[in-house]
Amino acid sequence: MKNALRVHTALFVVALIYAANYSISKDVMPRYMGPFGLVLLRIVGATLFFGVVSRIVAPQDRISGRADNLRAIACGVLGIGLNQLLFFSGLNLTSPINASLIQTVAPIITVLASVVLLGEKMTLPRVLGLGVAGLGAALIILGRGHGPAAAPGQDTMLGNLFILLNATAFGIYLVLVMPLMRKYHPFTVLARIFLVGAVLAVPAGWQQVQQPDYANFPPSIWAAILYMVICLTILAYLLNNWALKYASPALLGAYIYLQPALAVLIAVSLGKDTLTTAKAVQALLIFVGVFLVSRKPKPQPVVAVAQE
Predict the structure, then answer these.
(1) DSSP 65
(2) What does the pLDDT look like over 244-270, one tens digit per residue?
(3) Crossing angle of helices 186-210 and 66-75, rounded to 10°
(4) I need a labelling partner for 188 at 20 to 30 A (CA). Which of 109, 128, 139, 151 fits?
(5) N-terminal to C-terminal alpha carbon distance within the chain
(6) Total domain count, the chain
(7) Number of Cβ within a 10 Å radius of residue 6
């Protein structure tokens, strides 16, 4: 029970971090820095952090065996490199509301991948939970009107496609990384997969990271960049991957549905939105859905066979 509370607390914090990021990232892109430049700063910063810390807290821990090393490479490509490059490219071209709506595809991908790759059961409560939470998320997003649109000249359709591919990559990543997180120390896994992601991010973002006039960045933009490196990358990945030691990928995916609800609460707290009965009901749908997805399937009773 105590461990379950810690897992839900960790996943709630991750959802809160991601919910705030939709607006924070748009303050930086594309005026101050291109999407690939931001991804390079995020991934290289996290690679250095996890690389150093892993050598301190788990110096003898190493990912070994061909299967585990190939899995780690796949996780680095899907969950770090492609995931972040696609997300920031998409968010740069589309609106935060479009991005958050399309992100709700990820839990469905995660559940389907869990069934195919891990043999998890597609139970009725999980199906209902995904449906209820997805309904709540969609109602919150659609109920907010059109919201801030993409800037003139941006290709919204292409941006939406990038976000869809990002959600698919992240959904599969959650399933692939779980066996590694349960076998090795979290910092060992994160150090390896971020190193793989850096191999993609550095050549992709090298040109964009050299273009900005850093000396003229206002403090708010530096704060936004630090938020994306420390909170959005290091803290969020650490909490997500720690939670995979004790929870199913389906539960982590379901918490993506919580992000629109938290985005509304953040807007209300800043005086940019109002909390209505409809929004409260929509948020409740999401919480109910997450609860249903988090329920573990009951173990099948063992039937004794009489010996002849």
Answers:
(1) S
(2) 888 777 777 777 777 767 776 776 676
(3) 40
(4) 109
(5) 43
(6) 1
(7) 13
Residue span of the structural domain in which 133 resides: 1-294
Residues 6+ apart with CB under 8 A from 178: 118, 244, 248, 249
Write down the pTM of the prediction.
0.76
Confidence at residue 81, expressed as pLDDT on a 0 to 100 scale: 92
102: its two tokens: 């399309």
b/e 65-102 (16+ beta carbons within 10 angstroms → b): eeebeebbebbbbbbbbbbbbbbbbbbbbbbbbbbbbb
d(CA 265, CA 31): 27
| The token pair that represents 113 in the structure block | 């991948």
Residue 13 CA to residue 23 CA, distance in Å, equals: 17
User: Is 193 among the domain residues?
Assistant: yes
Q: Domain for residue 250, yes or no?
A: yes
Residue 33 lies in a domain: yes
- Mean pLDDT score, 223-244: 90
Residues in the chain: 308
